[in-house]
Amino acid sequence: MSQATAYEQLMLELVNAARAKVGAQPLAFNGYLNSSADSHTSWMIATDTFSHTGVNGSSPTTRMKSAGYVFSGSWSSAENIAWASTRSPAGYQDEVQLLHTNLMNSAGHKANILNGSFREIGIGFNTGAYQGWDAAFATQNFARSGSKIFLTGVTMDDKDGDRFYDVGEALGGVTITAVSSTGARYTTTSQSAGGYSLALAAGTYKVTFSGGGIVSTTKQVTVGANNVKLDLIDPAMIKIINGTTLANTLYGTTGVDAINGSGGNDKLYGRTGNDTLKGGTENDTLYGEGGRDVLDGGAGNDVLSGGLDGDTFRFVGSWGADKIVGFQDTIDRIDLRGNALSFSTLSVTQGHADGDGIADDVIIKGNGQTIMLLNTQKALIGAADFLF
Questions:
Q1: CB-based burial label for 172 (10 Å; 0-12, 13-18, 19+)
Q2: What pLDDT is stored for residue 328 in this prediction?
Q3: Domains within the chain, CATH numbers bracketed
């Protein structure tokens, strides 16, 4: 299977925009169809040929099957091909738009583009010499197979503000997770060109976009008998702030930050926003301040202070002996996931950990390591304060 390039993603966005105008369901990329389309485009350029009849006299449907696409149940297929001489300026966005316009100006090709029964597509765009011209070629392979329905779309940073995908605006590596009202979970990742497709059963879903450097966003969508397009346009981005191997004092912004201390005895300040602070390898001091923050001291003996909002103190692997200042029962959480621990395996005692000689601190021990909750009463601490 091949992934779509940015030019192929652009062509799909043009196709789906045209389909939306007539009420036709959006098309979802299929990797096998993309391989079929890519191969035919490359073959036409290599052989100086412009034809639906391809390598070894193959038909479009035969090429789709040979690429691995499986037709089943009620199925259909079609193919569009187009070429045009390349133009300036550099890049081929103009050529993609021209090829789309030319196809839409041809009745038969337009009928394929707007055919509401198709659900999937593969697009092969490439350039090369054709009969003495510097040419841009495109192959579009359309298909419907069985009863699969897709949630599809694009994740993008809309740099020019036109609310439409352009080459260079893709946000790849974004995780898309759809959870149904019954708890069924489906997930995929946007490709490098920003596109994604996720086969779903009919129902209502909460769809979360996360990872890939973005602030997590959740939307609701209902899937019925037709494909649904759900784009992520201009999500808030996580600002990444990295320290050095020396002692650093690092400050977050008013947005969402990922602050990494690295080496040295660091001081990290989240400021406002739901931030993630990671101390690193030495003895660090982390201040979440405003927002719902995640604080991870890393190795070494660290001091963690969340702030007034509900914060999560994360401990994974080797963390030494860490102190939590201002822990809020029922509001904050201690995250011990990934450590093979449970509340029953922890030692939770009242003692003194801050040097004042008063037994007003909670000392938690597990896996030979220690977490100290300063100025906290043991009676308040239970399993609900932890994530296992």
A1: middle
A2: 97
A3: 6-144 (3.40.33.10), 149-233 (2.60.40.10), 239-387 (2.150.10.10)
